[in-house]
Design goal:
Blueprint lengths: L5 E5 L2 E16 L3 E8 L3 E7 L6 H4 L8 E7 L6 E11 L8 H17 L6 H16 L5 H15 L22 E4 L4 E3 L1 H4 L6 E3 L1 H11 L9 H18 L7 H13 L1
Parallel strand pairs: 4-6
Antiparallel strand pairs: 1-2, 2-3, 2-5, 3-4, 5-6, 7-8, 7-9
The protein binds zinc ion (ZN).
Length: 265
């Protein structure tokens, strides 16, 4: 994709041209929408899309959830809401809205990006979120849990919370590949049998589950998961996020992703 970076002044307001992904959108007043974007150049930004409800002609489907494209923002200095001048779509990702497992997994990815990304541009986080959404869009319905888990762990890793999996997160003793052990969210990874006794709220972590997480962090996603394994992985990830999120607000999209599949089954 062509990378656009430009900052120039039009009508006295700086114009930011950046690649952007729509992570959240809601109606505002009669005719407009407020969009929360993950931008490559300036992290999370909120923009007002005037007239987006009245006429879809202006933006078309560009402002649908998870769409990606080139955004032009009139940046109001010291304000939290900027004006969206244009959005030229490059990927719509309609497939994400076509299947509930894909949609709930993608919504979880959006939630993590909104919570972890600040207003600093992070090309690595941007590219990871973009790639993860593409992978979920291509995932078969039965694979959406694994693909979503892989994506969540990659995002967690990019923002600096890579879990320790090859050695004990407390005493750093290397763990054997086939060694069943435990996982401590507070310690930040797998723990050996000795440290498990003192680690708070450590949970059993079979060697196969640890291997799956290692694959996901390496960008692989074709890890076969049974339903109970998928459920256990979601619970472990939730507990890890609870221990490391920047604030205490509940993860609503994650909760829907975690419970929708199993309550529908
Ligand atoms: Zn240890």
């Amino acid at each position: 994709m062509q990378r656009l970076t430009a900052a120039c002044y039009i009508h006295g307001m700086p114009l930011l041209v950046t690649e952007a992904i729509v992570l959240h959108a809601f109606d505002y007043l009669e005719s407009s929408r407020i969009i929360r974007l993950l931008t490559r150049e300036a992290g999370i930004q909120s923009v007002l899309a005037r007239g987006a409800r009245k006429s879809r002609g202006r933006y078309g489907s560009a402002l649908d959830l998870f769409a990606e494209g080139s955004a032009q923002l009139y940046v109001k200095p010291n304000r939290e809401l900027h004006n969206l001048a244009a959005f030229e779509i490059t990927r719509s990702r309609n497939e994400l809205a076509e299947e509930v497992g894909r949609f709930t997994a993608a919504s979880t990815i959006a939630e993590l990006a909104l919570r972890f990304a600040g207003e600093e541009g992070s090309p690595q986080l941007y590219d990871t979120v973009s790639d993860v959404l593409d992978r979920i869009a291509r995932a078969l319905p039965l694979a959406t849990i694994g693909t979503g888990l892989a994506g969540c762990w990659r995002i967690v890793s990019v923002v600096g919370f890579t879990p320790e999996l090859s050695s004990c997160a407390v005493c750093h003793t290397p763990l054997r590949d086939n060694e069943d052990g435990a996982f401590s969210p507070a310690a930040g990874g797998a723990v050996c049998s000795t440290c498990r006794q003192v680690a708070r709220r450590a949970r059993r972590l079979p060697a196969t589950a640890r291997a799956a997480m290692t694959c996901w962090l390496a960008g692989e996603e074709s890890v076969p998961l049974s339903d109970p394994e998928g459920r256990s992985h979601q619970r472990l990830l939730r507990e890890f996020l609870d221990a490391h999120m920047p604030d205490d607000r509940p993860l609503r999209a994650f909760a829907v992703w975690e419970h929708e599949r199993w309550s529908a089954a």
